[in-house]
Amino acid sequence: MDSPNAFVGKIQKPTDKELSLALGSTAHLWTELEAWLADEYGAAGREWKSISPKYGWSLRLKRKDRTIVHLAPCPGCFRVAFILGDRAVKAALAADLPAPVAKALASARRYAEGTGVRLIVKKPADLAPIRKLAAIKIAN
């Protein structure tokens, strides 16, 4: 089951303090993932987006003009979303990913932009497959 966005109904983008409060014990994991993507792959561009207060806010992490990942804050956790092209999906399915991640990828919907896969981060171990997917996305 998907966790609801922590900022549903909020008209303005969240402040750092609001983000930290919403993420709770996972705030350090969010910060760690952001820093890792910036250091390892140059994905330092940050863009908060909300298509409607009904859906809340998400942070796009970009490398130049290319969105690498979307992070959506949820109460006590966060959602990570990738849009993967066909080559990236093929590489990810061949990678050694944990069974739940591979299953999520295999059952993900295909859109015109690519295949969208969403994962939830609740604990440090959840970051390893996300790092692997980020590397695959950037390589493909």
Structure summary:
The protein is α+β, with helices and mostly antiparallel strands and 140 residues long.
Describe this structure as you would to a colleague.
The mean pLDDT is 95. With 140 residues, this protein is an alpha+beta fold. The longest helix has 15 residues. It has one domain: Aspartate Aminotransferase, domain 1, CATH 3.90.1150. The protein is globular, with a radius of gyration of 14 Å. Strands 1-2-3-4-6-5 form a six-stranded antiparallel β-sheet.
> Strand count, sense and closure of the main sheet?
6 strands, antiparallel
- Helical segment count: 5
**Averaged pLDDT:** 95
Radius of gyration based on Cα positions: 14 Å
- Rough shape? globular
Question: What is the spatial order of strands in the main beta sheet?
Answer: 1-2-3-4-6-5
Q: Tell me the series of helices and strands, N- to C-terminal.
A: HHEEEEHHEEH
The CATH C-level name is Alpha Beta
- Please mark out the parts with pLDDT under 50 across 5 or more consecutive residues, or reply none: none
CATH domain topology: Aspartate Aminotransferase, domain 1
Beta-strand proportion: 25-35%
- CATH A-level architecture: Alpha-Beta Complex
**How many domains comprise the coordinates?**
1
- Helix/strand-derived category reads alpha+beta
Distance between the first and last residues' Cα: 29 Å
Give the % helix: 25-40%
**Count of β-strands:** 6
